[in-house]
Amino acid sequence: MRVLRPSEWNEWFEALGLAFGGGAMPAAKRDLYREVTHVDRSLAVWDGTEPVGSASSFPFSITVPGGGLVRAAGVTMVGVASTHRRRGILTSMMRRQLDDVRAWGEPVAALYASEPGIYGRFGYDTASHLIRAEIDTDRVGLTLPEGTDAVRIRRVRDAGAALAAFEEVYAAQVPARPGMIARLPHWDRLGAVDPVEDRAGASELLSVVAERDGRVTGCVRYRTRADWTDSVPQGRVEVRDLFAHDPASYAALLRHLWGIDLTSTVQMENRPVDDPWQLLVSDIRRCRVRVVDSLHVRLVDVGAALAARSYATPVDVVLEVSDPFCPWNTGRWRLSGDTKGAACAPTRDAADLSLSVRELAAAYLGGTRLGTLAAAGRVRELREGALADADAAFTSGAAPWGPHMF
Ligand SMILES: CC(=O)SCCNC(=O)CCNC(=O)[C@H](O)C(C)(C)COP(=O)(O)OP(=O)(O)OC[C@H]1O[C@@H](n2cnc3c(N)ncnc32)[C@H](O)[C@@H]1OP(=O)(O)O
User: Fold this and answer.
1) Binding site membership of 117 for ligand 1 (Cβ less than 6 Å)
2) Active site: which residues (predicted)?
3) Taking the complete model, does pTM exceed 0.80, yes or no?
């Protein structure tokens, strides 16, 4: 195992594609992946001249509760050749990667898992969830808030103008929810890349903005997919991204999606669990909402990670943390914080709560409550009242969400 060399990227990426069981990636997308790859943060495992293992990470910054950013390694491109599995190659890459991330001073690692069962053994846990929905728009109505009619809806045809409008809205949303990722160069284009091979018969990706008083106040990117089974028009609107600055702009975009002729379904693939449309619909059951794990987080440096976020209520607790895979985190940590910020340092004081680094990861962005983890037997209260205090402090106003896939 060693750090990848730029000249090896092609065969490394091809082996990764095979590990994922996929066919060739469209050239436009592949070129962008090459541009965003940090070769110096990429690991390659070789058997002779054959690449058999890969792992990489992006130097992201992720929003934490309170609206600040924490430096986080966005772990990605993990694969082991089918001929070389279950021999410890992934384990050796995770060992090296977490040691590197620690040396780079990034307190957190985060990833989207192909399968949620893989990464717990390395100290990751689910830190945010997403919802998917298949909304029967023939039957499900919307109640629109005041001001919706004042919002203008406009399709932006020019790709450059659409991207600029979208990115302006996106950037303003980054502090709004834990789990959001500040854009790195090229990632804007990766979100909008739209090769014909990926459409599977659907339309191109359409960009529509909401505007009020000449200012862009929201945007949505979606495709439409026609369906004329039995001559009945029952097409589908496939929503990729939807952001808005205010309720009226948000509702105006929803009304647009609901009202597209010859369609009867709006499909949402990745929305926050507290997405407000759920409170505007006439029949939530016909929206077929499903909850799925989303961002998995690992606290690489417990002290720095916990100090990087703020806390909803004042908290002063000693955490007894176990971390077999990254033993430098094992021990007692005093966490003191409130809405303005926090400090977290090793201590010899008696512990108030006992938990592993995985429970801290699950609670880190406010997506899972410490009280729920305690009810599952995963957090132990050692001082009466400490659990209630920490449970309240770790919550987040808005649910964490990861619309920026990587
Ligand atoms: C962030 C991302 O990129 S997610 C993408 C992950 N990649 C993929 O899903 C591509 C397809 N799969 C693969 O390439 C490989 O099977 C990998 C990367 C998941 C695992 O690689 P391996 O080298 O076989 O893993 P390794 O031998 O180190 O296994 C370590 C442990 O994880 C377990 N494990 C491995 N894969 C899985 C899995 N998919 N689900 C559950 N457990 C798993 C092993 O059984 C082993 O357990 P043990 O320690 O109790 O014996």
Assistant:
1) yes
2) 119, 406
3) yes
